[in-house]
Amino acid sequence: MNAPLIILVTSFFVALTMAGVLFIISRTYPKSIRGLTDWSWGLLAMALSLPLFIARDHIPDLFSIVLANLMILGGFMLMNAGIRKFSGTRARLPRAGLYAVVLAYVSLFAWFTYVHPSVAMRVGTMYLFTLIVLLDLLWVALKELPRTAGRNILVFSLTILIATRVVRLGSLMFGIDQPTGVFDPSLSQLAYLAIPSIMIPLGTISLVMLASEKLHQDLEFTSRYDDLTQCLNKRAAMEALKREIARARRHGSKLSIMLIDLDNFKIINDTHGHLEGDKVLVDFSRQARRLLRETDLLSRFGGDEFMAILPGTGLEHASLVAGRLHEAGREGQPLAWSISVGLSEWLGEDDSPEALLTRADQALYKSKASGRNQTQSI
Fold first, then answer.
1. Which domain holds residue 186?
2. Which of 54, 149, 231, 291 has the most crowded Cβ, counting Cβ within 10 A?
3. Beta-strand pair 305-311/297-302
């Protein structure tokens, strides 16, 4: 068994295994992590192309040359689609454009196989088309993926694959190291076969890492944020409040909080339905985040009750913020809403989070008892 054949057989089993592993992961990870299935199908297409290459001269050229190379291009295109789905990036070409690319690719291979046979032109066609797909994939990875270890490994593997193609195309253009076939035993041919057999599985491992990183981020987000409003949940809000009090104590700065209740929220649910009620909650949280500063924190304390933490803010400025929230409610969507607000300011060294919250809660009760749709402070 010669060296190119060993590489192709090894690559077949590695790609097939990686495709299976990735397919299983795609079925066990949350549906919010997209693109894994496309990448696994891409690996499978590449894996199944290798027996066709190995069977060259034993099966018709339509299968060992045209179909095998089409599966290689299709594999890269599916990987590209997988990364785009994973990152939430739209395809660069419409479906008709993709079909046109595939048709041009197949036509060129048919021409250089049956009409004007040329190994060099077939190799050049495959490397040129896959280079374009890989360049686009690299652009998406650099622009759209988070800068994590998984992304860095993916960028590295793509860069090596791209560099290999540039060198190969350059050698073909200048008539250097002309290919004679898949089983050419030259060192350059061995390198051209071995590099993808290493870099494609490495890229697949990087995608698994990216998926795991995203899963970890999603789980962390779920543990800290309310799913409906995307605000901090109560536990995370209490942790944030303690941190802000510690910061205010260190720097001697001001700190205020707002406890906010949506007025008559039960009536909204009973009259318009819970779906409309959820839309009101979402609209309030969106408007509140728009009006708050980046350093302010908004949390959903439960039901229709929210808390806003305002670092570096005294009661006077907090009252102005509350006033803007009251105004925003008059134009709420899908329904106008109103709020009752209780304000409390951190009193200094001996003040505790519990005492601060108690005063804000008392102020909120005072707002409700006074007719709602107003702000009170203690």
1. 3-224
2. 231
3. antiparallel
Q: In this structure, is residue 184 part of a structural domain?
A: yes
CB of 237 closer than 8 Å to CB of 307: yes
As a whole number of Å, the CA-based R_g of the chain is 30
Instruction: Give the SS3 label for residue 260.
Output: strand
Query: Which of the residues 304, 350, 351, 361 is marked catalytic?
Result: 304
Contact between residue 268 and residue 353 where contact means Cβ atoms under 8 Å apart: no
Cβ 69 vs Cβ 122: under 8 Å: yes
The reply to whether 103 falls in a domain is yes
The pLDDT tens digits for 219-230 are 888 889 998 999
* pLDDT for 342 beyond 80: yes
Read off the pTM.
0.73
Helix segments in 183-334, DSSP class H? 187-224, 234-251, 265-272, 274-291, 315-329
State the residue for tokens 């060099």. Answer: 120
* CATH (domain of 278): 3.30.70.270
Per-residue pLDDT tens digits for 258-291: 999 999 988 888 888 889 889 999 999 999 999 9
CATH number of the domain residue 209 falls in: 1.20.1070
Is 50:76 a contact under the CB 8 Å cutoff?
Answer: no
Q: Look at residues 187, 206, 224 and tell me which one is the last residue of a structural domain.
A: 224
